[in-house]
Request: fold
Amino acid sequence: MRRDFLKLCGLAGLGFAVPVRSRESPAAETPRDEPYAGPFYVVFNASGGWDTTYLMDPKGVNGINRLYKDGDILTKGAHTYAPNKAHAKGGLCNEDFYSEFGAELLTVNGLDYSTNNHSPGARYMATGKLDSTEYPTFAALVAACRGPNCPLAFLTFGNYSATGNLVAMSRVPYLPSLKKIALADAMDGNERAPYHDKFALDRIEEALRETNEAAGAAPRLPRAERAENMLYAAQVNSKALQRVAQYIPATSPRERLSQQVEIALASFKAGVCVSANLTIGQFDSHANNDADQMKLIPEFLAGVAYLMRRAGELKIREQIVVVIQSEMGRTPDYNAGNGKDHWSIGSALFLGRGIKGNRVVGATDAKQFAVPLAPATLALDKDKGIKVRPEHVHLALRELAGIADHPLSKKFPLGVPEKEKLRGLWTGA
Reply:
């Protein structure tokens, strides 16, 4: 049955955490079935490069946009945003998004990606490191630091997802797949058709535990040790994953991001997951920019809203940290095909646990170039300030998550000088 569980994980594209036991201290590394209680980290990726001037960094001048003028720009508290209710194609318009979440939202404008190429841009935004393919994404790093023994510690649905070999990359593409994994001891995920009754399962668990403990100090070939360790991990993880079943909705939502959200939230609520990397693509609007962005931005915002609302229903909203980003922006001018090309300046949004909302940090000028800011005060400073790059934000994210000084984080330094650290990014203090 445990071999079947491992095989099912492979077929579903699922990776899971395999505890590594030290011969010197076998008891300390023994996997335990303890739910992870949070915080939970969600990274939304607008893959392809969103047009930030149609969302959180509106312009309305210099022909940058064709759907609104400078006088049409809207405000909500500290935020200014582009009006798109009249042009949005489904999803959630900017007006409704800011009305519901503006008080919780932190905007960072004028992010300098230092590249306008998709692959390095996605890597840079995901990891905070532009010149290395070895670094883990923030979502993978925080999962490895906070919940290394969680069966689905790091869930990803695409985009750049490198783990730095710190944690398993778990992929669960559909809710039915999650149910089959959660109920691995049932035929096709049907809890009414179990392979074993509870008595037999308890005996299997006890036998594996005794075997694992007895073998802890015995010398073995590495291949045999790994096989036995995986077998025992499969047993522990299988039991933990059973908790997920009760949080899987009876019907799956139709929207792409909402489906990903349900898988992530069920895993969070069950205490088997720390972080999730969510994504939708097609933002690369080289042709017909306005039509494409007016379809995708509302769809994207609807996914964020769905996450927050469902997290509230599951009573874990206060434990959620959300990062909303893309790997690049769009040019301030249109090309011959009414599209916009790659632009190395953009924005990101944040909300959730530990983040003070109703705030905007950074800016771009009227030509959509980044304006430097003073890292100590976060005030704009054209003369002596710095351009905010992804490594500045990632260092702040590590500090927010309480992992900046974790040994795993120190294996992947970001190289931000002390004088360039963004002070009070999350608290405004």
